[in-house]
Design brief:
Elements: E1 2-8, H1 16-27, E2 31-37, H2 43-52, E3 55-60, H3 65-71, E4 74-75, H4 77-82, E5 87-91, E6 94-98, H5 101-112, E7 121-125, H6 129-140, E8 145-149, H7 153-162, E9 169-172, E10 184-187, E11 210-213, H8 222-229, E12 234-236, H9 239-254, H10 261-267
Parallel strand pairs: 1-2, 1-3, 4-6, 7-8, 7-10, 8-9, 10-11, 11-12
Antiparallel strand pairs: 3-5, 5-6
Helix pairs in contact: 1-9, 5-6, 5-9
The structure holds 2'-monophosphoadenosine-5'-diphosphate (ATR).
Amino acid sequence: SDRYAVIGHPIGHTKSPLIHGMFAKASGQDLVYTAIEGRPGLFAEDAAAFRAAGGRGLNVTAPFKLDAFAYATERSARASLAGAVNALKFDGERVLAENFDGVGLTRDVVRNLDCAMQGKRVLVLGAGGAARGALLPFLEQRPAELVIVNRTVAKALALAQELVGQGPVRACGYQELEGQRFDLVFNATSASLRGELPPVPATVFVPHGLAYELAYGKGLTPFLRMAQQTGVRRLADGVGMLVEQAAEAFAWWRGVRPATQPVIERLAVPLA
Ligand code: ATR
């Protein structure tokens, strides 16, 4: 059977073998999907060894997303804008690179959570790798406005600058959010991984809106708790994003789109 894997460091906690294993079983695809503990600084060697052993594709996670970008011979537009790669496909000498995080997130919001972005005001907290991947797919949904806010304002400004001409994007600092409201608020900072709260004013949320934490499996993070306390009824964490980006990679590799709902239900961790 064809071989696939996720590579990262550390890789112990990864859910990808479980997700792709469920996809393969449900869609009748004959493949083996494993996890590889990558060696920092030796990504090209580890990827080459996997290819030599018959590997057809890799998912790539921290800290190798930039190494994978460099290793690729062809990169999609979204991988280029994200500046990071989370999926590789091997085709003879060719190494094709993709970034499915943003499309996976967008699909989760629009289809699974039934929360259209068209004409809505959208706020993204953070300007790192997680935020970068989401911006182009978000703009394709034609929001009324997409605001990027970051602690280091210069990073948000630079990112908005890269998107000039692609849609109604603006960048600002957290203080400038006073008095502004957003239908959809995404926490794409790494604050939740340390139990921290980005300095976002509670007034940005609206009750009919959506608060989405990109991190997965952290329960009710300080960000989600704040949103809940201001009366936001729809709260989500990154489980749907995780499964949807995996489904995008699976479809890219195998030409078959697996059902995601059973996998999301299996992996979901209660937010309370
Ligand atoms: P990732 O790939 O997860 O996005 P990253 O590229 O290191 O990680 O980016 C982390 C993001 O979280 C940045 O936008 C960072 O803000 P700065 O650019 O100002 O550092 C943001 N971040 C991390 N901790 C934060 C906190 N406690 N409050 C607000 N923003 C935070």
